[in-house]
Design a protein that fits this description.
This protein is mainly beta. The protein is 1% helix and 43% strand. The chain is built from 1 helix and 62 strands. The strands form 16 sheets. Strands 27, 28, 29, 30 and 31 form a 5-stranded antiparallel beta sheet that branches. It has a 4-stranded antiparallel beta sheet with strand order 1-2-5-6, with no helix packed on it. The longest helix is centred in the middle third of the chain and has 4 residues.
């Protein structure tokens, strides 16, 4: 929530609050939500902010403060008082420019769950309180008005307004402080929880001076299925605004943006007149041009009332003539430089140096694009799916993209460009009960095999099985009732009988401790999963992810995303035993720790980097030491405390991609020595050290060298003073042929550097090493 002080001479002052109760910022299992921590104030139009109001005992890992979920902020045009509508605690007021707040109405016993507040040009207030958590609340749910800055309130709930209801939004026309509109989602829908099913929504216009109200619910637009309805998706998308110079010109936002020139005093007419955004008026899943489904914010320009700004799941749009009649509204997008994409998952192509990235995003499909770290420039994004992108995969021969409720699509990869092209849907026909963001896993040894959970059941796809349906339900692996398979990952594990494909999977429950399983010989087994050692995770703990060492499938990390529990468990014996490695990130005894959403194990030449993606950013360590593990925050200047939902770590060159909630994708490189890629196994006549490419570079480059025979190799980078600044290859043995090493210089200053190859043939150690050097330039 954000608001400006509207008084002349005070308009440089802004107030902001945070938290997300109903949205996509949780851990997808609904256990770890994102809380606000207070009210921020800016006195310079947002150039700088100060935390003004907060509670000393507020816990950022639980719902225990009025600042956890700030839904609305309004500022009085008469005296500058600041009012908050917050989840769970009602309406609050500050009389000292946000330095502190006091409760006004609805804060007792966590009533209401939802609230909203609006203020008129005369300073009078209208608030709506929803049904709450207690049977005998201090105030009944309904609509209230105050004409004395919130000191006293009158219940003005009209006859016919629902007794029990969830979220409402209220607006007062700028041109008439004696009127108000209230839009309410009752919490009821027709069938099965489908957000596009018909919800029970009521809509009233109130005459505050006369004390009367008119139920205009029947006049709301309804153009029929599939998407031509007034739907709030259980109040997720729900907003209203009134034209500053016309109290009857109203915009209502649900999944679509609807318009009325008489405040819906009469029934909605032709779609061309009333349907102005969201999905297209063709009533298909196509988007309205330069607008997007799911409306969250509407602002009329007070100086030019025909100009309207909207915030929706596609970002920001603006129109210069919202009053246009008989034609579609012309919108333009304003997303350039506006980096707020919410990623559920991200994938990297497998080969070293490959710049292709694919991910799944909240209501923006599955963007595919290229990112060159040497130039820090991303290519044009192509959304290859629709709706809510979910899990993804970029492989050698194909790609996968999934969307909400487990819909799985397969793509071929163009032989020349590497870009994906659609091949068809791959969802198991008989699968049911998938999660909204449903995980998938591709076999680590053979990408012909895909593993797919659906509620309690597990499915396996075999590309080489033949026939029209190559999915097999692994009925012998169904998890117990009350559980859902919430995470899975594959690895190549030495079972003692050779390296075999291994599948790790987890089942989570709201009222029981999670379960862990390992399936060996995963490409052929239909039963026989091993139940792994039980961790100390409590009832209701949610396993969000696994991380498996790509070089050793016996090493695995289990990620539990709840607050206030041990969240990272590490095993080096295929899950036979686990050790908690939260360390300084928290754990059951440290209630201030973040929610951990993702992890990765990144092997290098002679070390391993462990990465943890959390609700407060990315952390890394090279040493896991049980409860004494020390995690260090990474990229604090670039990434900051962005929520990291997914990590893709590529062992072939040390590249890492982070999928964040609200800040898009970040790409980095391991600064530890990276693995060496063999380009050509044919021996050369002599040792050769090639010029790095590109050169000059910023910040990454690649160095190739050729060996005439198996040799012990060291590749070192020096500055011009002769100081070693990086060791890329640290005395390891490489076979004859051409090899390539990556170098990331993001921590170094611009200038000239020398890289030196020392290579000693195993068959001629007495002859000593061959030493070759070249210069390169880092140009920022």
């Amino acid at each position: 929530a954000i608001a400006q002080d509207p008084r002349p001479g005070n308009r440089n002052r802004w107030y902001a609050g945070g938290g997300e109760l109903r949205g996509s910022a949780s851990d997808n299992g609904g256990r770890a939500f994102i809380y606000g921590n207070g009210i921020y104030v800016s006195d310079d139009n947002g150039d700088s902010w100060q935390l003004a109001a907060f509670e000393d005992n507020q816990n950022q890992t639980s719902f225990d403060s009025p600042y956890d979920y700030v839904h609305r902020i309004v500022v009085s045009p008469t005296n500058g008082f600041v009012y908050l509508a917050v989840n769970g605690y009602g309406i609050w007021r500050s009389i000292n420019q946000g330095a502190s707040f006091s409760p006004l109405i609805g804060p007792f016993g966590l009533l209401p769950m939802w609230s909203d507040v609006a203020i008129g040009s005369d300073g009078a207030l209208v608030a709506v309180l929803s049904t709450g958590f207690v049977e005998n609340p201090t105030e009944d749910p309904g609509i209230y008005r105050s004409s004395d800055n919130g000191a006293n309130w009158s219940n003005i709930t009209p006859a016919g307004f629902p007794t029990d209801h969830e979220r409402s939004v209220v607006v007062i026309p700028p041109s008439n402080p004696n009127a108000a509109y209230v839009l309410t989602y009752t919490g009821e829908s027709v069938s099965n929880g489908d957000p596009f099913d018909e919800e029970t929504i009521v809509f009233f216009k109130l005459d505050l001076a006369a004390g009367t109200a008119e139920d205009r619910t029947a006049n709301l637009p309804d153009y029929g299925p599939p998407v031509g309805v007034m739907s709030t998706q259980f109040s997720y998308n729900m907003t209203m605004a009134v034209k500053p110079d016309d109290e009857d010109f109203l915009l209502i936002g649900g999944i679509n943006l609807f318009r009325s020139r008489d405040g819906f005093a009469t029934p909605a007419s032709a779609a061309i007149e009333n349907w102005v955004g969201g999905y297209d008026i063709s009533n298909s899943i196509a988007q309205y041009a330069n607008q997007h489904a799911d409306q969250h914010a509407i602002v009329f320009d007070p100086a030019t009332p025909t100009r309207v700004w909207t915030g929706h799941d596609g970002g920001i749009s603006v129109t210069e003539n919202i009053a246009a009649s008989g034609t579609r509204i012309v919108w333009s997008r304003r997303n350039d430089g506006y980096h707020v994409t919410q990623y559920y998952h991200v994938s990297l192509a497998p080969d070293a140096g490959d710049d292709r990235i694919l991910g799944g995003t909240q209501d923006n499909g599955s963007p595919f694009f290229r990112f060159d770290p040497t130039t820090a420039v991303a290519g044009v994004s192509n959304d290859i799916s629709s709706g809510d992108g979910a899990y993804s995969y970029l492989g050698t021969d194909y790609a996968l993209a999934s969307s909400q409720q487990g819909r799985l699509l397969r793509y071929g990869l163009d032989n020349v460009s590497g870009s994906p092209f659609f091949m068809g849907e791959l969802t198991p026909a008989d699968a049911a009960d998938q999660l909204f963001i449903n995980p998938i896993a591709v076999d680590a040894l053979d990408e012909n095999f895909i593993y797919y959970p659906a509620g309690r059941t597990l499915w396996r796809y075999d590309e080489e099985a033949g026939g029209s349906d190559t999915w097999t339900q692994l009925t012998g692996l169904t998890v117990p009732a009350g559980y859902v398979i919430s995470a899975l990952a594959t690895g190549a594990r030495d079972t003692g009988a050779g390296v075999r494909s291994t599948l790790y999977y987890a089942a989570s429950s709201f009222d029981a401790a999670p379960l862990l399983f390992r399936l060996d010989n995963a490409t052929t087994a239909t039963s026989g999963a091993v139940t792994l050692s039980e961790s100390e995770t409590p009832s209701g703990a949610y396993i969000h992810a696994f991380a498996v060492n790509p070089a050793d499938g016996n090493e695995v990390i289990v990620v539990v995303s709840n607050y206030n529990v041990e969240s990272l468990y590490h095993s080096v014996d295929g899950g036979a035993t686990f050790t908690g490695v939260d360390g300084n990130l928290g754990g059951a005894d440290i209630v201030t720790g973040p929610s951990i959403r993702a992890a990765a194990i990144l092997p290098t030449n002679n070390s391993v980097v462990y990465l943890a993606g959390t609700s407060t950013g990315l952390y890394a360590t090279e040493t896991l030491n049980g409860p004494a593990t020390v995690w260090i925050q990474e990229a604090d200047a670039e990434l900051g405390n962005a929520i990291v939902q997914s990590i893709a770590a590529r062992a072939s060159d040390g590249r890492v991609a982070l999928g964040t909630h609200g800040r898009g994708v970040f790409v980095g490189m391991s600064l530890l020595p990276v693995p060496i890629e063999t380009i050509d196994s044919q021996p050369a006549a002599a040792y050769v050290l090639d010029q790095n490419y590109p050169n000059p570079f910023n910040p990454g480059t690649e160095i190739t060298f050729t060996l005439p025979a198996a040799s012990r190799v060291r590749l070192t980078v020096f500055d011009v003073a002769g100081r070693a600044v990086a060791t890329l290859v640290d005395g390891i043995i490489l076979d004859a042929g051409m090899h390539r090493a990556g170098f990331n210089a993001s921590s170094l200053a611009s200038g000239a550097y020398i890289y030196t190859l020392e290579a000693t043939p195993l068959a001629g150690i007495a002859a000593g090493p061959t030493v070759l050097s070249k210069a390169m330039t880092l140009a920022r």
